[in-house]
Amino acid sequence: MGAGGQMPAVRKTRNPLERVPSTKPPFTVGDIKKAIPPHCFNRSLLRSFSYVAYDLTAAFLLYHLATTYFHLLPPPLSSVAWPVYWVAQGCVLTGVWVIAHECGHHAFSDHQWIDDTVGLILHSSLLVPYFSWKYSHRRHHSNTASLERDEVFVPKPKSKLSCYAKYLNYPPGRLLTLLTTLILGWPLYLAFNVSGRPYDRFANHFAPNSPIFNTRERLQIWISDGGIIIISYLLYRIAMLKGLTWLISVYGVPLLIVNGFLVMITYLQHTHPSLPHYDDSEWDWLRGALATVDRDYGVLNKVFHNITDTHVVHHLFSTMPHYYAMEATKAVKPVLGEYYRLDDTPFYVAMWREAKECLYVESDEKKGGVFWYMNKY
């Protein structure tokens, strides 16, 4: 129920690949907010810290199990145990990453300094420049689905694709592209702005004078860099003490999995055959915020604190704590109607499908400022 009366319910049988409406919706942000129980916007410092404690406890137990008992296992079992540890620890640490992401949105507590302190510690421990990413990600939220101003995974028109792009749209090339994206996509984005919006000069997340940031933000970029330097030095000391192989096994491989999940989650939230993009003639904030999709990662939804299956409501109200996002999503579905999109295709299937189907965007014949994904050469 919105301010304008009862809205149509979401059709349960909707094809997730059916295009969402690209016209201005018949509801406002205020209508959507009225449908959400008021308590969903209340941030609890104690409850937020409980998730930090839970994730860090799980990470420590996995570390303790691996470093205390794995060497006692006979070779066949030890060969299996380490990959299981890497995946499990990578999933748990992705949850830690999500909590730091909450801090960047001021969704962790009512105190900005607490959010920034917790976020800086958690993100730095995962080699993420907290303030740098906080500011670029904030601009992504302010410009979602804008072809001119969105910050990441900005699709290209067919005319701007590389000359060899069509040769990669076959299974071997697609597999190579996906593996490269999952393994190297995150550090390449931070260091070289790969897949980010174009700037008039070199942009990265470590240089305080990068065009990504304004003058008031530059000091905090130095602080982000300081956090990375401190953690890097600690890792260096651990490698000298324990050995590089030990560090890679315990920390390095799980970190690669964290980075891979981060790229996959972000890519799948904003890349879907049913979602439009807009140029400046059509874009507005609400339609941009709605141009995202909720995905189902099974049990990993909980491990990732539901950042996967509540992303639409997160883009509408980014300061809402994650532990109310499921309740809020359920409340807004009747208001959003056809504008809400959930795709429960398994994420590994969806990743392959979207890499095949969403190669570039073309303008809608009926409405020139609206662009849809295409894959035909």
TrEMBL record:
Protein name stated in the entry: Delta-12 fatty acid desaturase type 03
Gene: Fad2
Residue ranges of every copy of the Fatty acid desaturase domain listed in the record: 81-341
Cellular localization per UniProt: Membrane
Source organism, top-level taxon: Eukaryota
Gene Ontology CC annotations of this record: membrane
Domain Fatty acid desaturase N-terminal: 21-60
Pathway the protein takes part in: Lipid metabolism
Residue stretches spanning the membrane: 51-70, 82-100, 175-192, 219-236, 248-268
GO BP terms in the entry: lipid metabolic process
Sequence similarity: Belongs to the fatty acid desaturase type 1 family.
MF-aspect GO terms: oxidoreductase activity, acting on paired donors, with oxidation of a pair of donors resulting in the reduction of molecular oxygen to two molecules of water
Principal location: membrane
Key words, A-Z: Membrane, Oxidoreductase, Transmembrane, Transmembrane helix
Region of interest called Disordered, as start-end residue ranges on this chain: 1-20
